[in-house]
Amino acid sequence: MADQLTDDQISEFKEAFSLFDKDGDGCITTKELGTVMRSLGQNPTEAELQDMINEVDADGNGTIDFPEFLNLMARKMKDTDSEEELKEAFRVFDKDQNGFISAAELRHVMTNLGEKLTDEEVDEMIREADVDGDGQINYEEFVKVMMANNIWECTTKKIKKMKKKRKKKKKKTKNAKRNEKEMIPQKPAKLESRRTPSRLNLLCHRSPYCSIL
């Protein structure tokens, strides 16, 4: 798990870990785990922290070494990325941005963006998600059904492709409109009209009697 982290991330985690490793023995206490993680921008709940401690501190000695800490951070960051992708997926299908998607929309998601599922499987997923049967699925229900059926990775990847394709199409349309505008012939500049003097004006100009008119 830790091998998925970059060198910069490992250095950052090592620096934060060392701040709390007072005696330099390469360990921190389980009580300090939450403080270290929060200093790195992570905000685990008390329940999540307890799960992490139970997972790592198997012998119950109350300490965590750096390799164990790295594995915890790598797992936490992966979970955070997954959560962001799921939120993005939910926003795509929440058309009116009211915090819910309809069961019909979920059916469309499952059928067209997920695995190849039968109608019966889709119906079962909808029944699992829409517990109160109101025809609306909130974010928590959406996450539950996506994670339970292990198809969120496929869905989020396809959503990213859709967004990229949509963006490319929008750019192409914009360029086409600009080219079309450039091809429209421009009206020639309006020439200044020069009035030709009438014969009467010329005669008046030459005659001394015009000055008395």
From TrEMBL:
GO terms for molecular function: metal ion binding. SMART domains: EFh (SM00054). Residues 177-195 have a biased composition (Basic and acidic residues). PROSITE patterns: EF_HAND_1, EF_HAND_2. PANTHER family: CALMODULIN, MYOSIN LIGHT CHAIN 1, 3. It comes from the Eukaryota. Residues 160-176 have a biased composition (Basic residues). It holds the Pfam family EF-hand_7. Residues 160-197 are annotated as: Disordered. Residues 8-43, 44-79, 81-116, 117-152 form the EF-hand domain. Belongs to the calmodulin family. This is Calmodulin-related protein. The keyword Metal-binding applies. Keywords: Calcium, Metal-binding, Repeat.
